[in-house]
């Protein structure tokens, strides 16, 4: 059927692909992918023969009409990214929007994503989460974004490059507080998968040296309860209020 299939692929371990994803890739007329070499590894491994069409940040505007015309002609497209789930810090959102606007079907084929793999292994509250993707590289913009998230009552999830991990954790300590529970998930589903768990302060210390190797997800737990006001606080607030009180 003519449809755009959003197909999740592995984030490391090549066996992390669903039966349905393989069937969908095998049947698609076109596989739109970020990098034909990266997706080529997958299609080779599973003996898939579909036509690979590059669709990435830099050619997306040019490629979108081509992909829409495939659907127009009754063909089906599978969208994949280099790793994990398309649209999650990866291209695809505008394509989905345009395909919907043209009245075609969009069918997600769910699977691996570093966001969920990191979350479920972190040991942090998972009832409310905010996926914040990559922070800006500039210090000022990074801080502004973190400030906007200080009060968020949920676990924050970030993607970060290993080169910037140490600096980002240090800024998080300043903007979110050293005491927050947090985790750094590294190399998920791969041979050297590790979770480091502790306070933001602990983790900033741990990663203050040389940049670690591999791919990284940072998770920060929700802010703790504000400490209840002490009797002294209440007394001084009452005294201040009395000073301003009109005497009638
Ligand atoms: N679409 C992907 C997904 O669903 O997870 C994410 C793509 S984004 C361009 C790449 C970032 O995802 C990496 O810089 C890293 O932060 C995170 N990531 C991807 N694979 C990972 C892995 N195996 N372990 C830890 N983080 C990973």
TrEMBL record:
Its EC number is 2.1.1.198. Residues 4-204 form the Tetrapyrrole methylase domain. Keywords: Cytoplasm, Methyltransferase, rRNA processing, S-adenosyl-L-methionine, Transferase. It catalyses: cytidine(1402) in 16S rRNA + S-adenosyl-L-methionine = 2'-O-methylcytidine(1402) in 16S rRNA + S-adenosyl-L-homocysteine + H(+). Catalyzes the 2'-O-methylation of the ribose of cytidine 1402 (C1402) in 16S rRNA. Belongs to the methyltransferase superfamily. RsmI family. This is Ribosomal RNA small subunit methyltransferase I. It comes from Roseibium limicola.
């Amino acid at each position: 059927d003519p449809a755009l299939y959003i197909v999740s692929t592995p984030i490391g371990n090549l066996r992390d692909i669903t039966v349905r994803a393989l069937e969908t890739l095998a049947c698609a007329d076109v596989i739109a992918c970020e990098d034909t070499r990266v997706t080529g590894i997958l299609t080779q491994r599973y003996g898939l023969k579909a036509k690979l069409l590059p669709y990435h940040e830099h050619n997306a505007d040019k490629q979108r009409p081509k992909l829409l015309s495939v659907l127009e002609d009754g063909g089906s497209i599978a969208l994949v990214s280099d790793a994990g789930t398309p649209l999650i810090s990866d291209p695809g959102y505008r394509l989905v929007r345009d395909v919907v606007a043209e009245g075609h079907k969009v069918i997600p084929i769910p699977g691996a994503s570093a966001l969920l793999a990191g979350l479920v292994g972190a040991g942090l509250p998972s009832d409310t989460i905010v996926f914040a993707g990559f922070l800006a590289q500039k210090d000022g913009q990074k801080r502004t974004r973190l400030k906007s998230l200080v009060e968020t009552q949920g676990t924050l999830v970030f993607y970060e490059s290993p080169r910037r991990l140490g600096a980002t954790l240090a800024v998080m300590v300043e903007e979110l507080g050293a005491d927050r529970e947090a985790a750094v998930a590294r190399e998920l589903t791969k041979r050297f998968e590790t979770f480091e768990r502790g306070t933001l302060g602990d983790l900033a210390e741990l990663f203050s040296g040389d940049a670690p190797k591999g791919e990284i997800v940072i998770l920060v737990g929700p802010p703790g309860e504000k400490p209840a006001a002490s009797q002294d606080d209440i007394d001084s607030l009452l005294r201040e209020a009395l000073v301003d009180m009109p005497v009638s």
